[in-house]
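We modelled the chain as a single entity of 458 amino acids. Its sequence is:
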Amino acid sequence: MADACDPLDFEFEEPIQFSPPPPKKRKKLIGLDDLLDDIQKEKKRLNEKKIKQKKIRKVCDAEDEDEDAEEARLTECVDNCEKEINQINGDEEMPFWGLQVFGNQEKLPQQDYPELKSAFLNPKINPQLELNIEKGEDFLEGLLADGWLLHLVRASGCVEKSIATWTFNLMLYSSKMRLMEAACDFWSTILSIRDKADTSTIKIDWLPRYSDLKRALQTYGFLFDSSSKFSSDINIVPDDSVAAGPPQNIRCWIKCVGFCCQLRDANIIVSTQEAQELVVLIISLFLDRQLVGLAIILHESLLSVINSFKNEEWPNCCEKVAKSLACRFPCNINCLRVVESIVGIDGRSKQLRSAVALQFLATSLKKKICDAEKILISLAAINLKDKKCDLFQMYVYLSLAENWLLFNATLKDKAAIHELWGTCLRNCSSGITITDLRSYASNVRSKASYLLQGSTSK
């Protein structure tokens, strides 16, 4: 074991030799010429780099422009193809029908009826319910709304003039829906009872006249002249405005016309000429888009007025109504609405529909006499290849001729008429090619082809 006093191992090692530090190099002094050279070289390098970047950018921009131009050309080509396909295969959208047949309303009259108290003094009525005459009109309104007034009238067998005029004016002018509808039901019931031969009739001291119905329609703002506006020209007004279309009483007015003309002796309310005017007025209401929801009661009322004519007077009246409608409305999309509003499976409805369509055709073609052959010859002579030809008007002509011939029973067995009609349809279906891109060209071609197929299959 080594002694603690022995020297350590590192004490025998040789001392480390440290090399002397290298002599410091003296920095080379850079002159101004060297600095200028370095600056020029750096500028040259940067300029070359910028030039390369510009070249690369130009190449990229050129490629992008080529791609954008190619994409734009492709998009334009696709749009043009799609437009041409739609023009060839798709029909033009028809304009909307509709006229503004109501202008500004007048203030609905509110009248007092002091003579109503005399009705309470009727010895046939008063003892039954011990009515208090001091309660006046309010109490009578309650009787009307609850149906008791009708029971009292049935019991007495008489409707006094004061009661009749009061309920009639409530029906046409009241702003209270409950009273208005109750009065309408009251009149509908008493007139239906009066018209039944197998029941005890009710004596009515006062009956309305056509002048009363016309005055009410005038109060509603109906435009009796033909200067009605197209539906696209109608200015929308607020719902709470007094002039916002017809009042709600128009529903009862339409019903009133219907049950007044259902009487067997309807001429005591309206004359033959006045009934003709009522037909024109009711058909005019079909053109107001605000009254679309009343189509059912309009049809019922129209049918009642049509059936009120006597058999011997109907043919002449039908022709006069058709001429009046053709003079009142232009031969455009609205005349088709007029014709289509005359629906029904009865002979008179079909006859009127055919006559109205014929009159519109004759008026538009400026034919003073409604000669079937001359009208069809005029239609067949229209040059459809002429670029100035109004194809929409031709579509209207085809639709009118279709209704005229389809609902006219007297022309079904006339071969000459069917031959002329077939010639007209062939001219329309073959005279307009599938590549004809004029407006409504496809509509006319499709309509004619459809009608031609139907006529040849018969």
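As a brief sanity check on the tokenised model: The chain is about 60% helix and 0% strand. The first strand starts at residue 99 and ends at 100.
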